[in-house]
Design a protein that fits this description.
- By secondary structure, the chain is α/β, with parallel strands linked by helices.
- It has 2 domains: 93 residues, no CATH class; 226 residues, Collagenase (Catalytic Domain) (3-Layer(aba) Sandwich).
- Helix content is 16%, strand content 25%.
- It is built from 6 helices and 14 strands.
- An 8-stranded mixed beta sheet has the order 5-4-3-11-12-10-6-7, with helices on one face. A two-stranded antiparallel sheet has the order 1-2.
- α4 packs across α5.
């Protein structure tokens, strides 16, 4: 996958960009006791030293494949989930209680088999993050956010349904009872999701305690760009890891969307490069991304192709709206069932 290069000026202190003069004074050494290089750090630059002692909190570290994430305060982490039409990438940066920074990344390429594969109710596969919500995930949408028919009301409704798909465990597998997880749409905001440009990449900013869903441009071009990004921030207290905020951004620049793939006259399967005939279902993509918000991880086995958390989205279908058996069991494992 390629990324669009963007140059955006960030606050000097964030990237550690300062005077070009050598740091030789006592004051300079005190401000940068570890002698860290400028720009985006590599994990080896910290060499298991405390980010606090090195003054590296807020600095950017390469979390894998050149994707930078900001160093968190001790006991906190940030995860970036990137959904493509044909796969997904996940990057996590965590700072432990001592201030030691670790990173983790996973890439999943979707392999849609020639045959439909096992049904969504035949697979009990799931994978979980270390965090969960101990309070409702209350989100807002940015004013003016609209996809497909340019209706914010339609976008808001899709976001509400996608959240309910997860918190209520909606499925056609006969698995009854909701999930002990809560979330709700609570209105609009003029703010956008906490995504920033750094080192020519889009990445997660620092947690601001707010939850926002918006739309905007994401790296890459048609067929190479991501469909959606989710940033989730978590913190650990007394051995308990809880999600504290999460933002989602939908790509409104490189792809076309639909709210009704079954009845949309423009939503007809077509081979590239006929971009005008490609549509992705808003509710399906939001349901998958909100799965990450609640702690579900992308699946990788081709046999799980019909589960909601299998990465990669088939165009002109709403199959990810309804959870599979594994999706529901994963949510129950995290939150329990009603």
């Amino acid at each position: 996958m390629k990324y669009t290069r963007a140059i955006v000026v960030l606050v000097s202190a964030t990237l550690g960009v300062g005077s070009a003069l050598p740091l030789t004074t006592t004051a300079a050494l005190a401000a940068d006791p570890c002698g860290l290089p400028r720009g985006v750090l590599k994990l080896a630059d910290l060499a298991s030293r405390s980010a606090i002692e090195c003054g590296a909190v807020g600095r950017l570290v390469d979390a894998g494949n050149g994707v930078p994430l900001p160093v968190q305060q001790p006991g906190r982490s940030v995860s970036l989930d990137m959904l493509y039409p044909d796969g997904a990438r996940t990057f996590t940066l965590a700072t432990d209680a001592r201030g030691v920074v670790t990173t983790d990344s996973h890439h999943q390429a979707s392999k849609f088999p020639d045959l439909p594969g096992p049904g969504a109710c035949e697979r009990d596969t799931y994978s979980l993050r270390s965090y969960k919500w101990y309070k409702p995930w209350l989100f807002r949408t940015t004013r003016g956010t609209a996809l497909a028919n340019q209706s914010q009301a339609a976008f808001d409704a899709a976001a509400r349904r996608a959240t309910a798909n997860m918190t209520q465990g909606r499925n056609t597998c006969g698995l009854r009872g909701g999930i002990h997880a809560a979330g709700a749409f609570v209105g609009h905001t003029n703010e956008r999701g906490n995504f920033v440009y750094a080192d020519g990449q889009t990445t997660c900013g620092d947690s601001d305690g707010r939850n926002v869903i918006d739309a905007g441009d994401l790296p890459g071009g048609f067929l190479e760009a991501t469909l959606a990004w989710t940033c989730t921030w978590a913190e650990t207290r007394h051995g308990v890891t809880m999600a504290v905020s999460a933002d989602i951004r939908m790509n409104d620049t490189d792809y076309k969307w639909t709210y009704d793939p079954v009845n949309d006259p423009a939503c007809q399967p077509a081979l590239p490069p006929d971009q005008d005939r490609w549509r992705y279902d808003v509710e399906s993509v939001l349901t998958h991304e909100i799965g990450h918000v609640y702690g579900l991880v992308n699946l990788s086995a081709a046999e799980d192709v019909n589960l909601t958390m299998y990465p990669g989205v088939r165009r002109c279908t709403g199959h990810m709206r309804t959870l599979g058996r594994g999706d529901v069991l994963g949510l129950r494992a995290l939150y329990g069932s009603r």
